[in-house]
Automatic annotation (TrEMBL):
Protein name: P-type Cu(+) transporter
Family indicated by similarity: Belongs to the cation transport ATPase (P-type) (TC 3.A.3) family. Type IB subfamily.
Species for this entry: Protea cynaroides
Coverage span on the entire protein: 635 to 934 of 1008
Subcellular location: Membrane
Length: 300
């Protein structure tokens, strides 16, 4: 496209809340044959909430929540915020006048798995199955059943282990964006396929994918895995757009022919992307591709 055409399209995009950083993105977007969507915060609202609580030990419910919140209060993860919010509410309901989080030492983040720390003499683990297994915490049938059940319902199961035993779990749900299914189906009508990639587990990922009409899913994928998946598609000659919001999406956003960041996402993702969807609305994935198509047709 000519510099003028790029300028016009960029201006038009900006007025519609689609920030296009330079001519390359505009040149590439019309060739896109596959759109790879991150799950959490991209296809979903990214505002998870606790919808269930199950205890597997006789640790009192208040203590259980307080200890879980103590670990999660140190984390920036949206799931952590949901757990803290829930603990706070529960604490208020019980009318306690003590702090709803206890003191925690040796806080550690386990990427794609959860968090850990010490409360008093006790080790506290909050996260998924992978986290529990890495600390040799046995789940047992009752816990396994609860995990499968919640995941089948498109929830993420957050396990809480205290002193080497699973004391309980939270079922956390993150609703899908209202426009997600419509966008996937419209892309299909444009002959563009959609793929989901996520760090979350296979069962939850598959349940969410089904809700939005995506049939290709890559779950339990780390940031480098997300980028590699895109490179593999490119090696087959497919032009790929990646849509994501998280720090864990940035290598993939850079690798893609067009990286699109959700406006409400992290700064790292916004910086890594070629296009920023200011309104955080997935419809604007189509707006960006359309804009590119129109710009390039005009000069032919
Ligand atoms: P995504 O790619 O979906 O944004 P992440 O890579 O951030 O997911 O995390 C993958 C999984 O690790 C989460 O679905 C959750 O099960 C677990 N996890 C990560 N951080 C936390 C946390 N702070 N508390 C509980 N679980 C966590
Ligand atoms: Mg995300």
């Amino acid at each position: 496209a000519t510099p003028t055409a790029v300028m016009v399209a960029t201006g038009k995009g900006a007025s519609q809340g689609v920030l296009i950083k330079g001519g390359n993105a505009l040149e590439n977007a019309h060739k896109v044959k596959t759109v790879v969507f991150d799950k959490t915060g991209t296809l979903t609202e990214g505002k998870p909430m606790v919808v269930g609580l199950k205890r597997f030990s006789n640790v009192p419910i208040q203590e259980f929540c307080t200890v879980a919140a103590a670990a999660e209060a140190n984390s920036e993860h949206p799931i952590a915020k949901a757990v803290v919010k829930y603990a706070k509410k529960l604490h208020q309901q019980y009318g306690s006048n003590t702090e709803y989080v206890t003191e925690l030492r040796d806080f550690e983040v386990h990427l794609g798995a959860g968090v850990s720390g010490n409360v008093g003499e006790k080790l506290v683990l909050v996260g998924n199955r992978k986290l529990m297994l890495s600390y040799n915490v046995q789940l047992g049938h009752e816990v396994e059943d609860y995990v499968s059940e919640t995941e089948r319902l498109a929830c993420t199961c957050v396990l809480v282990a205290i002193d080497g035993k699973v004391a309980g779990a939270f079922a956390v749900t993150d609703p899908v964006k209202p426009e997600a299914e419509r966008v996937v189906s419209f892309l299909r009508s444009m002959n563009i396929s959609s793929i989901m990639v996520t760090g979350d587990n296979w069962a939850t990922a598959s349940a969410i994918a089904k809700e939005v009409g995506i049939d290709q899913v890559f779950a339990e994928t780390d940031p480098i895995g997300k980028a590699n998946m895109i490179k593999e598609l490119q090696m087959k000659g497919v032009a790929v757009a990646m849509v994501g919001d998280g720090i864990n999406d940035s290598p993939a956003l850079v690798a893609a022919d067009v990286g699109m960041a959700i406006g409400a996402g992290t700064n790292v993702a916004i910086e890594a992307a070629d296009v920023v969807l200011i309104k955080s609305n997935l419809e604007d994935v189509i707006t960006a591709i359309d804009l590119s198509k129109k710009t390039l047709n005009r000069i032919r």
